[in-house]
Amino acid sequence: MARITYVEHDGTEHIVEVKNGTSVMEGAIKNNVPGIDADCGGACACATCHVYVDAAWDGKTGAKSAMEESMLDFAENVEANSRLSCQIKVTDELDGLVVRLPESQH
Amino acid sequence: MADLAARVVIAGAGHAGGSAAAFLRQYGHTGPIALIGDEPLVPYQRPPLSKAWLKGEADAASLAMKPAEWYGDNGCSLYLGLSVVGLDRTARTVSLSDGRSLGYDVLILATGARARTLPLPGADLSGVMALRTAADAEALKAALGPGKRLAVVGGGYVGLEAAASARALGSEAVIIEREERVLARVACPLLSAFFTGYHQSRGVTFELSAGVEGFAGQDGRVTGVRLADGRTLACDAALVGVGAIPNDEIAQAAGLDCKGGILVDAEARTSDPDIFAIGDVTQRPLPLYDRTVRLESVPNALEQAKQAASAITGRPGPAPEVPWFWSDQYDLKLQIAGMPFDADTILVRGDPAAAKFAVFHLKGDWIQAVEAVNAPPEFMMGKSLIGSRKAISREKLADPSVSMKEVAA
Ligand SMILES: Cc1cc2nc3c(=O)[nH]c(=O)nc-3n(C[C@H](O)[C@H](O)[C@H](O)COP(=O)(O)OP(=O)(O)OC[C@H]3O[C@@H](n4cnc5c(N)ncnc54)[C@H](O)[C@@H]3O)c2cc1C
Ligand code: FES
Questions:
Q1: CB nearest to B328's CB, from A32, A43, A71
Q2: Whose CA is closest to B373, among B356, B359, B350, B354?
Q3: How confident is the model at residue B18 (pLDDT cuts 50, 70, 90)?
Q4: Is B1 a residue whose pLDDT tops 80?
Q5: Which residue lies with its CA nearest to atom 31 of ligand 1?
Q6: For the segment B129-151, what is each residue's pLDDT rounded down to a tens digit?
Q7: How far is Cα B23 from Cα A32, in angstroms, rounded to an integer?
Q8: What is the pLDDT of residue A61?
Q9: B129 with B299: CB under 8 angstroms?
Q10: What residues does B304 pair with on adjacent strands?
Q11: Residue B54: its chain A contacts at CB < 8 A?
Q12: Is the Cβ atom of A46 under 6 angstroms away from ligand 2?
């Protein structure tokens, strides 16, 4: 279980408990956090689950697959700390994780 | 004026209906929401039913869009295992299969589509199945496993995905298609040929241009598919995947405009201003192509759920989206954006033999549609160029050494 803070683009924070083994994207969808669309449900096919990972968590969120890199490369408003949240698996290690959401996913 | 306290009733608790309830709450709707669904489950995602879930790589909890408690915690009453059987637009009520009726200020019809069935001898044998619901998927999974033989009637996406999953579970699979190629309605011939070859190299067999006469059985259970040429293909299960029919009967009976689905506008509103319709059941405008279409995809269900929730809560609607779709088979990720309407040229970028390529459908110098196999840059940039209607250079697009960013520059 990890407590994850999702920060909407306007600064609104949503703090939710997310189960191990699920993804950071699922944590947002199952708790109805606005700003993550996840059109493909985690198939790494849509890039509408884009988040910015706070620097402190950089090494802990796992490496990007080639597919994720490639999708992100063409998403809007990408930064060095951009990730597709469906590709980040939740573990105890991620307790306290903070992710920020882009202005729009489309 | 939007009334945030309006009583919203949603008929159909699938991907579109469940998402509409969630978006209404995100957008500040405070009135009661009733969600009525004839399946016994809270809204769930169907795409994994032929893919990850069927292969055993995803569990039931991951299919549900929200945990069951979410609905009660958020003022959404669930009426599951019940059908909406009637709609009275004057009284503004819907009647349920258990005799109750519910009043609404705003109604959202999200009844989806159902699998088309084949009126053939033997179609009622046990083991002749469809794949639309979680219950269907359970039955299919139970019929698969090492040594089992699956016959798929209809070479559409669901059929191809089910065949790929069957192979992953150690089953034999044959695909029987009436047309001379699979994916005939939804993909270009090059893509059909590519997928056929890829499936064949993984042990799937094909019967193309093959008519099905019926199903053979023993003791009430299917044992084979009978073809028009007289042969019977032996199988332990037959999956019929021959398209879907919109569940628009209630709307028709209530006098709403329907034409191959419930007709809606760009806000997902039907011909009755207090009634919206969203998802697979709708015939919707596609301004980019100057047409109306009935789409069967999750992105479409989500876009229309947002349109309806925005209109109901008085927010500006979402930015129009380019229709898109994906399919996973083996290690292939297919992503399709746009529709090939009015295209005059087909241009291939990349190498099909390397299972990494994209097919562009061009109308002049505009991209109308892109079908990308293991090619995210082509899909992402193609989708964006379809939406922006920007003219491109055909020479650059055809040359994989020119990056997609440069093509779009
Ligand atoms: C196996 C499979 C794989 C798929 N794969 C993909 C994919 O990879 N990508 C993609 O984009 N799309 C895919 N789709 C399509 C996608 O799942 C649908 O487009 C989406 O579910 C549409 O949502 P909907 O709410 O309109 O319809 P549905 O999800 O079908 O929901 C409608 C619900 O309403 C219920 N209902 C109908 N009539 C009544 C009534 N009178 N009263 C009460 N309830 C009623 C139905 O039983 C159903 O539960 C797939 C579909 C299937 C079946
Ligand atoms: S949910 Fe589609 S890429 Fe993450």
A1: A43
A2: B356
A3: very high
A4: no
A5: B14
A6: 999 999 999 999 999 999 999 99
A7: 8
A8: 93
A9: no
A10: none
A11: none
A12: yes
Do B305 and B19 touch, CB atoms closer than 8 A? yes
Cα separation of B278 and B108, whole Å? 7
What is the average per-residue pLDDT within A19-25? 95
Q: Do A106 and B319 touch (CB under 8 A)?
A: yes
CA torsion sign for B80, B82, B87, B92 is: negative
Residues of A in contact with B324 (CB under 8 A): 46
Query: What distance in Å separates the CA atoms of residue B64 and residue B68, rounded to the nearest whole number?
Result: 8
CA distance to partner chain B, nearest, from residue A71 (Å):
6
Neighbours of B342 (CB within 10 A): 13
* Closest CA of chain A from B394, distance in Å: 20
Residue A48 has pLDDT above 90, yes or no: yes
Residue range A85-94: average pLDDT? 96
Nearest to B326 among A43, A73, A106 (CB): A43
Closest approach atom of ligand 1 to CA B133:
53
* ipTM of the complex model: 0.95
Q: To the nearest whole number, what is the mean pLDDT of chain B?
A: 96
Name the token pair of B333: 């990720």
Nearest CB among B45, B324, B377 relative to A41 is that of B45
Reduced to 3 states (helix: H, G, I; strand: E, B; else coil), residue A37 is: coil
pLDDT at A55 over 90: no
Using a CB-CB distance cutoff of 8 angstroms, which residues of chain B are in contact with residue A32?
Answer: 22, 25-26, 66, 70, 74
